């Protein structure tokens, strides 16, 4: 097939958009889609300091590279969650990637803040690692972004990620989550930063193709705790529908965003300072510090008392 724009031999077929593109025009297409998301959802303002959360995977590396190419002032943050046999490789991947692009690299470690990594913590508390990791990672990203004066925290959630979340929230009618699921989550307090998702108009396949064509050195190994996650099952379901009806995922997400206001917005949250870490919370002690304290209480308890 031929490229829709230049009529040369195409490299990739995008069924959702009913077009085929050569390498150069596909790369331009990806940048255009990100710029469209930024404009449509008003993600950034002029002069903002943007912190990009970089895990080491294809999506976060692609996001950083794209924003840098578009001329946005970006810095990278990697949150080390202490996942045994995985985190060290992720840190090396991110460090080399940002060094090659002469970009600032910030490393924030759960071990330094809590004194323990997520693998050991989840095992000791008998909690699902993914759920625990997500909550603690968000705390660390928010805290670092605010303490270091950033105005936006950008994450690499793509269309498949957001579609899977949307499918889960609608099938379970999590109205509160639906009201807040958007490419832009404004800061609800002066000590918080807004969250943005510039890749929401790009599918996982499109981001993967971009990463390969740009030869981005992303970490191919998936987090060992991600196996069996509900989001993976939702992605499989959406991909099956997409196969039979191309364009379903983008229509599902964009039409939801147009009508999201039908869901009642949550009441304003009353924030206060955590009695332990001083960061924002809705109660005396934040969830992060509560979990960390619970771990250390269990870890220091005599073995015979745990058996009782």
Description:
By secondary structure, the chain is α/β, with parallel strands linked by helices. It contains 13 helices and 10 strands. It has helices at residues 23-40, 58-69, 87-100, 110-114, 118-125, 129-147, 159-171, 175-180, 204-213, 230-244, 248-259, 287-300, 303-307, and strands at 12-14, 19-21, 50-53, 74-80, 105-109, 152-154, 184-185, 194-196, 272-273, 280-281. A 6-stranded mixed β-sheet has the order 5-4-3-6-8-7, with helices on both faces. It has a two-stranded antiparallel sheet with strand order 1-2. A two-stranded antiparallel sheet has the order 9-10. A hairpin with a 6-residue loop joins strand 9 (272-273) and strand 10 (280-281). The protein is globular and about 70 Å long.
Summarize the structure.
The chain has 308 residues and is of the alpha/beta class. The chain contains 13 helices and ten strands.
Task: Write the topology of this structure.
Layout lengths: L11 E3 L4 E3 L1 H18 L9 E4 L4 H12 L4 E7 L6 H14 L4 E5 H5 L3 H8 L3 H19 L4 E3 L4 H13 L3 H6 L3 E2 L8 E3 L7 H10 L16 H15 L3 H12 L12 E2 L6 E2 L5 H14 L2 H5 L1
Parallel strand pairs: 3-4, 3-6, 4-5, 6-8
Antiparallel strand pairs: 1-2, 7-8, 9-10
């Amino acid at each position: 097939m031929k490229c829709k724009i230049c009529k040369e031999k195409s490299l990739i077929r995008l069924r959702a958009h009913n077009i085929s593109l050569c390498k150069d025009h596909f790369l331009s297409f990806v940048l255009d889609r990100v710029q469209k998301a930024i404009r449509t959802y008003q993600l950034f303002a002029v002069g903002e300091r943007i912190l990009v959360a970089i895990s080491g995977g294809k999506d976060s590396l692609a996001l950083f590279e794209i924003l840098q190419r578009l001329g946005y002032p970006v810095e990278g943050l990697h949150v080390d969650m202490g996942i045994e046999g995985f985190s060290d490789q992720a840190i090396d991947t991110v460090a080399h990637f940002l060094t090659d692009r002469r970009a600032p690299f910030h490393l924030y470690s759960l071990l330094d803040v809590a004194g323990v990594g997520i693998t050991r913590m989840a095992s000791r508390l008998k909690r699902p690692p993914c759920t625990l990791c997500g909550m603690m990672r968000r705390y660390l990203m928010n805290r670092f972004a605010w303490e270091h004066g950033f105005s936006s925290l950008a994450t690499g959630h793509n269309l498949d990620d957001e579609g899977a979340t949307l499918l889960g929230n609608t099938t379970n009618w999590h109205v509160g989550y639906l009201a807040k699921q958007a490419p832009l989550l404004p800061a609800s307090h002066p000590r918080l930063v807004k969250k943005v998702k510039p890749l929401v108009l790009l599918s996982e396949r499109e981001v993967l193709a971009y990463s390969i064509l740009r030869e981005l050195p992303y970490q191919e190994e998936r987090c060992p705790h991600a196996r069996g996650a509900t989001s993976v099952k939702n992605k499989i379901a959406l991909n099956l529908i997409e196969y039979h009806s191309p364009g379903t995922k983008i229509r599902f997400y964009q039409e939801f965003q147009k009508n999201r206001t039908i869901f009642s917005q949550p009441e304003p949250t009353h924030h206060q300072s955590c009695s332990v870490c001083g960061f924002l919370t809705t109660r005396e002690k934040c969830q992060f510090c509560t979990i960390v304290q619970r771990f250390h209480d269990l870890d220091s308890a005599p073995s015979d008392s745990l058996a009782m």
